[in-house]
Amino acid sequence: xxxxxxxxxxxxxxxxxxxxxxxxxxxxxxxxxxxxxxxxxxxxxxxxxxxxxxxxxxxxxxxxxxxxxxxxxxxxxxxxxxxxxxxxxxxxxxxxxxxxxxxxxxxxxxxxxxxxxxxxxxxxxxxxxxxxxxxxxxxxxxxxxxxxxxxxxxxxxxxxxxxxxxxxxxxxxxxxxxxxxxxxxxxxxxxxxxxxxxxxxxxxxxxxxxxxxxxxxxxxxxxxxxxx
Length: 228
Ligand SMILES: *Cc1c(COP(=O)(O)O)cnc(C)c1O
Description:
Radius of gyration: 17 Å
InterPro entries: Ala_racemase_N, PLP-binding_barrel, PyrdxlP_homeostasis
Shape: globular
Keywords: Pyridoxal phosphate
Function: Pyridoxal 5'-phosphate (PLP)-binding protein, which is involved in PLP homeostasis.
Largest sheet: 8 strands, parallel
Bound molecules: pyridoxal-5'-phosphate
Number of helices: 9
Family: Belongs to the pyridoxal phosphate-binding protein YggS/PROSC family.
Protein name: Pyridoxal phosphate homeostasis protein
Structural class: alpha/beta
Helix content: 25-40%
């Protein structure tokens, strides 16, 4: 068994244990492999051992990998900061975009999604613990944004994405509350089923609080080298 396969089995088992501790069905938590900075070959190897969904943060790097790996049936997630002038590539090349935090971004993604494509899956990013430096809308903006984004034709609004400060596990419970509140809205989106939270260091706490998608990089691929 190679290193990547071993790491993946380990992470899947960690997810399963975290679910069982809180009486959750392990099938309700999806593993998104965060592959930023890692070469296409590593993604190909991860694919070969069963991984299908990959998350990327940097557009140019991601576009090169999407091109190089077009023979594989990968579900591509963009989890980085969404810049307004980059939405066209996101709309055309990805299956999911997690970092939507303004209506204008959602409108652009919807209008730039091709008619021949399935609707683009969206998570609304929320600045759940009031960090200055973080992207994401404010919690009190969620209800209105959900109503507005749900009306856009070429998007499927799936849920929320949060990146709390390290060790701020209490924020996961706040995110779960907000996620549940949307379900009680008058204009509840049809496919509201995704709470994207938890990374290598805090996936147990995220799962205990109700995460349905953990975004894991380091625990799968090893440490990132940004000097390359
Ligand atoms: C890099 C990144 C991850 C993965 O982080 P690890 O600590 O390596 O698991 C998850 N989510 C986002 C938004 C990221 O940018």
